[in-house]
Amino acid sequence: MSSNALRALAMAVLALLFVAIVLSVPWPEGDMDSTTSEDVAKTLFGTTGAEGYGLVLLLIGLLLLVALLGGIFLAKEESE
Amino acid sequence: MIPIEYWIIFSSLLFAIGAYGVLTRKNAIVVLMSIEVMLNAANINLVAFSSYHSALHPSTGPDASGQVFALFSIAIAAAEVAVGLAILLSVYRRYQTIDVDKINILRW
Q1: Are the Cβ atoms of B64 and A4 closer than 8 angstroms?
Q2: Is there a contact between B65 and A23 if contact means CB atoms under 8 Å apart?
Q3: Averaged pLDDT of chain B
């Protein structure tokens, strides 16, 4: 058996294991809640200003900027 | 509404497909895409469990923490892809290949 077929078999076993575990768990009865984008905005920015994830959002913006600059630096053509 | 089990099974299968891609593919861009598929499986889990938790505890009001964390995760994935593609570009310029079996400069 080729190594790719072995890997495919291993992943199929993993997927079946996942499905079996999920189906064996007695999930409590409950429907999925319909969260609106307003709820997401309230959780993200908070309702008073002190709560929420505003600072984290700023830090992620900074991370994206750093990643952009890092990407440009890495992909830059080296001058001879 | 679709029950929680279906979402978890869906994300598990997505994760397994991504892991299969990472393990079998030789093209580094396809490997990067497979990693993104695995990341999206995690995002689906975040949103599904958040929605489920919110429905199980209606007294606390709607809680969209999982959705917010999924947003953060997508942003971090974007940063990862930007750096990953830049590294691949640099590797291609140097070695004329992005075959992960041939790029063994980090192997000891």
Answers
A1: no
A2: no
A3: 91
